[in-house]
Write a sequence for this structure.
């Protein structure tokens, strides 16, 4: 049985992330989505608990997709859950430069146990990012093309709470 880890901030989860998860779930026996606190992205929209609740709801009917959260390094989480590889999504050259460095470090610190597999979102989701979704939502524009209705609803509630 081949398990893979898909780590990220998912603040919020977009249709780009969901497209990568869908592809990974067809390739591997189990996909573990790891919601990790990214120290360089301190100002989050949703707390880890809120993200967990949202993503669990999105995948509650899928028995080969699991959701976990934590604050450690993705490579340690992958080892702990006996994953064969880390899944990352590639959008641009800047993503590529960063991922090349990250995969090398992850291989080294795990003594070659954790490899990285990069997938590409389908073209309609290639350029969707959590930060752009947050910006568009703040401008009161429609985000339904970029996020699931469950995420859209939670973003609306969050925004109303801040007004
Ligand atoms: P991180 O803080 O680790 O970058 P993100 O939640 O922003 O976390 O993204 C998690 C992973 O999903 C990263 O590998 C990122 O490149 C990928 N990703 C995000 N959006 C897309 C998209 N639209 N298409 C392909 N990959 C994506």
């Amino acid at each position: 049985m081949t398990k893979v880890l898909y780590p990220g901030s998912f603040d919020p989860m977009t249709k780009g992330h969901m497209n990568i998860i869908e592809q990974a779930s067809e390739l591997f026996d189990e996909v573990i989505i790891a919601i990790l606190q990214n120290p360089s992205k301190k100002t989050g929209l949703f707390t880890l608990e809120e993200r967990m609740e949202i993503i669990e709801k999105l995948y509650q009917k899928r028995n080969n997709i699991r959701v976990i959260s934590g604050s450690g390094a993705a490579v340690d989480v992958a080892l702990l859950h006996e994953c064969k590889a880390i899944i990352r999504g590639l959008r641009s050259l800047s993503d590529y430069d960063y991922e090349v460095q990250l995969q090398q470090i992850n291989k080294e610190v795990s003594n070659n146990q954790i490899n990285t597999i990069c997938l590409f979102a389908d073209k309609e989701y290639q350029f969707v990012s959590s930060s752009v979704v947050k910006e568009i939502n703040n401008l009161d524009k429609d985000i339904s093309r970029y996020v699931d209705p469950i995420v859209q609803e939670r973003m609306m509630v969050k925004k109303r709470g801040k007004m």
User: Anything to note?
Assistant: The pocket of adenosine-5'-diphosphate is lined by residues 8-10, 14, 16-17, 20, 38, 41, 88-89, 91, 95, 121, 125-126, 128-130 (CB under 6 Å). The two ends are 48 Å apart (CA to CA).
